[in-house]
From TrEMBL:
GO MF annotation: an example: 4-(cytidine 5'-diphospho)-2-C-methyl-D-erythritol kinase activity
Provenance organism: Deinococcus koreensis
NCBIfam families: ispE, PRK14608.1
Enzymatic class: transferase
Active site: 33, 154
Protein name (Swiss-Prot/TrEMBL): 4-diphosphocytidyl-2-C-methyl-D-erythritol kinase
Lineage: Bacteria, Thermotogati, Deinococcota, Deinococci, Deinococcales
Amino acid sequence: MPDRTAPESPAPESGVSASSAPDAPAPYFAPAKVNLGLSVRSARADGYHELHSLMVPLALGDDLRIAPAETLSLEVRGADLPSDERNLVYRAARAYLDAAQLSQGARITLEKSLPVASGLGGGSSDAATTLMALARLYPARLDLHALARTLGADVPFFLLGRAAVAQGIGEILTPLPVPRTPLVLVNPGVAVSARDAYHWLDTEEGFTPPLDIDAILTSLQDGRPVPYLNALQSGVAARHPAIGEVLRALADAGLRAPLMSGSGSTCFALAATDSQAHAVAQALQAQHPAWWVRATSTL
């Protein structure tokens, strides 16, 4: 899909857009994210992990169209995904409608542009966007953040619509300004389960210290190199050699700070300019036709 500089006709702090006709499907943009650092501090007794991460939304993502309807339905285009309660978008919609005690439904179309199970937060963003869209379509006095936490650790982040430091299991969010930064995303076509990535880290006891957020922000502003950390990267790369190949290709192309995002398998690296990002993406796509490659930027 084309790169975006901002969500289409955004509502304040929501990243969603309204339709002019009440019963027509309204378009909503669900941005991807990258982790500009992911430290896993420890394992918790409840099976989750204590995290320290800098998460930033991107100017590309998935698209949804949502219209009022008598019942709830979901159509997925662009990916082989279920359209029932196994889909996080469907579960988010059902959670909102039930919490608001509504008899109405919604007709939802999800256009997937992001790779599935890729570390870009696509499913979580789609779910958060669904919550915000239904809150606009059917206003109710509900705590969307509480609903989001029941759907997944990354879902609350996408309600913010801006960069944030994430702690706890990802639900403790501290917004902060991050300079707009061009980057290149590459996914080698490998799907990585987050459950597996964290299991491999637990097995290797690869827990890491807190991120130096100030150093990362300074590096984004002046280009000075700092160690960009993803505690999950070594375990995933050891089992999926394509990750290492992508990271080397990004570095060889002259980009900064190549890193895996989240639990993988998408990797990214920072560019000095938009033109450099687009040139590198074009070259990498030509060299590796099977890879999913995009030039974009942080929002």
